[in-house]
Amino acid sequence: MNALILGGGPAGCAAAYELRAAGVVEITIAEREALGGCARTQRYEGIPYEFGPQVMYTDEEPLREVFERFLRQTPPPTDDGEYHPKVSIDGTLDDPHDFPITVANVLKLPDPARAIYELYQVNLEKPDYTSFESYIISRIGRTLYETYVRNYNLKQWKIPPSEMDAEWARFRTLTLRERPDMFRGRWQGHPGDYNPLWEGLAAGARVVRGEAAVSADFQRVSVDGDPVEADLIVSTLPLSADLEFINTCILYVVVRSEAEVMPSYATSFPNHYGFVRVMDYRQQYRVDSELALLDFEFPWVGVCEEQKYREEAEWFCRNVLRREILESWVWNKERVYPVATRKNLARVEAQLERAAASRVIPIGRAGVHAYCSKDTCLRMAKIVASNLDAVRSGDPARKLAVLRTLREKLN
Ligand SMILES: Cc1cc2nc3c(=O)[nH]c(=O)nc-3n(C[C@H](O)[C@H](O)[C@H](O)COP(=O)(O)OP(=O)(O)OC[C@H]3O[C@@H](n4cnc5c(N)ncnc54)[C@H](O)[C@@H]3O)c2cc1C
3-class SS at 271? Predict the structure, then answer.
């Protein structure tokens, strides 16, 4: 049996690894750039960076084993060994709050009594699944939602949170925390370099550089316009051309400072600026350097306004950090965040049914049209490899049942 994998990001590399483990000997990966996708590690003056904060985490032993087979884990840069992102609700760095929201945050609000009253009304057993907005309000109350969540999501998704499906929120487990615990005690860290993972997972597969495409009915697959065939085709490409995504322009800037310039490795700004978050790679990876490498993450649809983003980052560095930018560059990617409106999710279901009647197996973030983490990519690949009989049976119902399980647990 031979397999063709479209896209060599975390999902494609994981698929190569799991298929080989399941006995598929001839595997080809068609990749337009380089293995690793969003989580390919680059370097600036010894500081590693990826496309945004790429923390690895998992609570599943078999997935952890895969990470550890190829990677050395560098623990997070905090005393308790956990990552602690921060959030600035006023646009300054004077008094950053915890993210996810903690009891300490509530006490810092102008009207804590109101937030506490609303928290008393919360019934975690009975979330309101009407929309993303109603779901979050049902878990943390309106005041906390409006202070920390509403505007961030407007910036990120460009549509009112009331129009987003609750599916997106369900996997973010947003509740009031006693203490900051972004990854809820899960095994977490950063290797300092993810590339041995991508190369290790893909070892033994033939990697061809090219632009892959799948026809709308999943019946034809091509690489650089040439039709290709395989017994098994795993696609990490978008499930359909008409599903909506948010594009992301990440602007990297370098400033000189011996002291930390940001309060955390990742600081979000729900209520100010066009960027959603500033990432500090030197802090995340505990690199000893007099340079700080930061990134500003700008979600966009329609037109990427790079010049405007540069001006805003410059303003922030000059006025908030009191630093001049020494160097800057962008890494812009289209179709990064799958939008979870009800309309899109209905299309996803219809597309999965179509894919079930073909040889194509969609996995990964774009393949199942859901935001997912690296460990979710590994899990999806495992699900496919352990259900090869079903996905190759020619029985659409059996294959569809497997495809649906890919979306059951999204981190
Ligand atoms: C800003 C940001 C921060 C994140 N932080 C974390 C985190 O902290 N922890 C975590 O676990 N996850 C994180 N993630 C999620 C993680 O990046 C994804 O789970 C992972 O990248 C998804 O892998 P993928 O293979 O599905 O997609 P991608 O990483 O996008 O890889 C897709 C690959 O396919 C290739 N490709 C696309 N189209 C074609 C084509 N037509 N032909 C050929 N090749 C093609 C691309 O070049 C790319 O290599 C983050 C994501 C983002 C965007």
Answer: coil
